[in-house]
Amino acid sequence: MKQIKSQGFLQRSFSLGNGNLAKACLRDLLLFPVMLQHPDQDNTMQAICFKEPGGPEKLYLGLVPKPEPKDGEVLVKVYATALNRADVLQRKGLYPAPPGASEILGLEAAGVVTGFGPGLRRNYKLGDKVMALLSGGGYAQYVAVPEELLMPVPSHLTLNEAAAIPEAWLTAYQLLHLIAQIKEGESVLIHAGASGVGTAAIQLARLFCAVPLVTAGSPDKLKIAEKLGAAAGFNYKEEDFSDKILQFTQGRGVDVILDCIGGSYWEKNLRSLAVDGRWVLYGVMGGKAVDGDLLGKLLLKRGHILSSLLRSRSLQYKAELVGSFIEQALPHFQSAELSTSLKPIIDTIFNMEDITEAHRHMEANKNTGKIIIKISET
């Protein structure tokens, strides 16, 4: 795990009109090294912003209104957040925030409870360490979160480690447990096995007594995946993974595929899939278009194509998912000594003002596990 020192610059922005992110910035501040200032604790906070879609250079550190918790919400002071591919897509203008969600990037966070809205069951108290699944808003010093989407931080984990859990682990849990309905003894092919979701899915597959197999793009990433419990790993840059899958399964194929690649993998995925297998699509990093006899080949295998996103799900669905995860998976983060222990994998920790470098790091596919952004000092 690497710690990146600050080399960033600060732009300040202000709220205009109805609370949208400001259109005006004091660009002359770019001439000076960043000096993180203490914003008005009652009204404003620092957040990572962008005014128009584009590359990582569009991101800057600005001042925005501090959220006020609404009915059923808890105010959390954010100490750390984590990057997800959805953040990159939203920054590029390809994945807008759902209606009603914060326009600020960030789908997960870890921090401390600092306030409450009305109508809470009060499962948490001031000062509690929590981690949160978000629809947006994690790249900021404070975020208001529906109480149902909070989880307690396991006692032996740091807040940086906790920030690596919500989006990646809940995505992997949803895909395996709710969508694919993985069963004991089944085999599952996990693409991008060294990613945040991939490293979580390997461990969860083992917890569910399934057999995880992975693809990744380097020997080092494959070694880490195998250390986490992958039964085998295949370098997609050097070999046809479908050949290796059929060899490993003695021609049968895998029961489940977790696919974040999409179009460019469709033929190899179908070849790797067992009869009656489930192909779960949750990303299209390799393209959306398919050119060929997908349906005919899928029909011959009686295959199932399933798809899922998490961010756009209803609050009720997310609340039930979080509740199931707290019951079934979270206890396994409590001890590192058990054979079924789960642990978040962190690649690099960046400071808040170095967000552009963090996004470049993700887009270069250099990370193994999660990229963490430190928002506040603990």
Structure characterization notes:
Helix 3 (166-179) packs across helix 4 (196-207) and helix 6 (241-248) runs parallel beside helix 7 (266-272). This protein has ten helices and 16 strands. The model is unreliable at 5-40 (pLDDT under 50). The protein folds into two domains: 45-167 and 342-374, Alpha-Beta Complex (Quinone Oxidoreductase, Chain A, domain 1); 180-307, NAD(P)-binding Rossmann-like Domain (Rossmann fold, 3-Layer(aba) Sandwich), CATH 3.40.50.720. With 378 residues, the protein is an alpha/beta fold. One of its GO terms (molecular function) is NADPH binding. Residues 54-373 form the Enoyl reductase (ER) domain. It holds the Pfam family ADH_N.
How is this fold's topology laid out?
Elements: E1 2-3, E2 44-49, E3 60-65, E4 73-82, H1 85-91, E5 108-116, E6 129-133, E7 142-146, E8 150-152, H2 159-163, H3 166-179, E9 187-190, H4 196-207, E10 211-216, H5 219-228, E11 232-235, H6 241-248, E12 254-259, H7 266-272, E13 273-281, H8 294-300, E14 304-307, H9 315-328, E15 346-351, H10 355-363, E16 370-374
Parallel strand pairs: 1-15, 9-10, 9-12, 10-11, 12-13, 13-14, 15-16
Antiparallel strand pairs: 2-3, 4-5, 4-7, 4-16, 5-6, 6-8
Helix pairs in contact: 3-4, 6-7
